[in-house]
Design brief:
Elements (H helix, E strand, L loop, with lengths): L5 H21 L2 E16 L6 H5 L2 E5 L3 H9 L3 E5 L4 H7 L4 E4 L1 H6 L8 E17 H4 L7 H32 L3 E4 L2 H19 L6 H27 L1
Parallel strand pairs: 2-3, 5-6
Antiparallel strand pairs: 1-4, 1-5
Helix pairs in contact: 1-9
Length: about 240
């Protein structure tokens, strides 16, 4: 919930993408384009709006990060660590009754049919890159690489646009087939943000996430939001 909109995500990637690409290059990967698999929402068997609602759910947790699992438990949540292939049968048996996922994935794999309630706020984006190994990239004649880079970026832009359209289409399709979307009032959304500021970020920033990078992203988001506020104010004065 640090990044809240598509515009904010695009801005952060625009500003920090070159640094991330340089880091990946050092690890032997050439970034061809950036994209995002969509925004993660919570899908549940029973309506969930508040953090306390979620604490009563058996929440699917992808992976086996013991420290993270224990941290969630210490906050009062009930994570159930499983492989992604176990999610559907676990929903069927009642081993889990909540999971986070992009809407396109929830409809593609029909997971929403077993958890037909969606909490209507964006938990986090899932950005990613298309990469090729530097070893293979360097085999391509140097004079062809710029054209390939341009083509890859153009494809990435089209893909990103389509993914964002698919998110809304997926939600609409699920609603036609029984999904209930539960609005989150501003005060309740702020309760989630307060929880993350007071409990989540201190536990992760520093011990698990670079404080320098967290501060950089936070600063860029503040910069972007101030710019948007000024644009809105200017438009209102016209």
């Amino acid at each position: 919930m640090l990044v809240r909109t598509d515009g904010e995500l695009d801005y952060v990637i625009e500003k920090l993408g070159p640094e991330f690409e340089a880091r990946l290059a050092k690890k032997g990967f050439k970034v061809l384009n950036w994209s995002c698999t969509g925004w993660v929402y919570f899908f549940t068997k029973e309506p969930v709006t508040t953090p306390d609602d979620m604490k009563r759910q058996k929440l699917f947790f992808w992976g086996s990060d013991t420290a993270y699992i224990e941290l969630l438990k210490s906050w009062g949540f009930n994570p159930v660590p499983l492989g992604i292939t176990d999610l559907l049968p676990s929903l069927q048996t009642g081993l889990v009754d909540a999971f986070p996922a992009p809407p396109a994935a929830a409809v593609l794999f029909q997971m929403f049919t077993l958890a037909p309630h969606m909490t209507d706020f964006r938990w986090q984006p899932l950005p990613g890159t298309t990469v090729v190994s530097m070893k293979q990239w360097n085999k391509i004649p140097a004079d062809l690489r710029p054209a390939l880079e341009d083509a890859a970026r153009e494809v990435g832009t089209r893909l990103q646009t389509r993914i964002r359209e698919l998110e809304q289409e997926a939600i609409a399709v699920m609603m036609e087939h029984g999904l209930t979307v539960h609005p989150v009032p501003p005060a309740v959304e702020e309760a989630w943000r307060t929880f993350l500021r007071e409990e989540g970020y201190p536990a992760f920033v520093g011990p698990r996430i670079s404080k320098e990078m967290f501060d950089t992203v936070s600063s860029l988001l503040d910069e972007y939001r101030r710019s948007r506020d000024l644009q809105t104010a200017a438009a209102g004065d016209q």
